Amino acid sequence: MHIALLLTLMQAKKKHTEKCDVIFQLPFQTLVFPHLNPFLLTYFFPYFNNVSRVFKLRSSDNETFQVEEAAALLSKTIKSSTSTEITVPYVKAEILGKVVDWCNKHAVSEGTKDQLIKEWDAEFLSVDQDVLFKLITAADYLQIKELVDQLSPRVGA
Questions:
Q1: Is-contact 76 141, C-beta < 8 A?
Q2: Phi, psi at residue 144, to the nearest 5°?
């Protein structure tokens, strides 16, 4: 009943807002509603406030990474995209995986720069110059300013 009502409301309210895949994690089932507007869900059904989008990033060698909304929105490229599926050209899976790891770690620790995240960042950045250059290229394409700022001083050092 609620789902039918919700779908009717969604069709009636199609305006200028972004559409995306909405996923409901239930104890025994996952429901996926493609191309819905999460704002309308939270407006009409306040208990859906924890609705989270899942973005799919595809590397240049066609490997796909699923990224939760909190981590994905650290990227201005993803934030401004109208799609939940984004191809990252010229970035191989190994490098995109590292960028996704960085985003996941920083989304979880956002607002707190404790010793653990500093240690994790130091280990993350202790790679050779070739990998650093590829990471900065990926971070620049995805417009992840904080990652670019962390990487830049290390390139050429």
A1: no
A2: -105, 90
What is residue 118's predicted lDDT score, i.e. its pLDDT? 86
Three-state DSSP state, 91? coil
pLDDT in tens, 58-78: 999 999 999 998 899 999 999
DSSP labels, 23-68 = EEE-SS-EEEEEEE-HHHHHHH-GGGTT---EEEEE-TTS-EEEEE
pLDDT at 48 over 60: no
Question: 53 phi and psi, to 5 degrees?
Answer: -85, 155
Cα end-to-end distance, the chain, whole Å: 61
Given a cut of 60, is residue 91 above it in pLDDT? yes
Strand order in the sheet with 54-58: 64-68, 54-58, 85-87
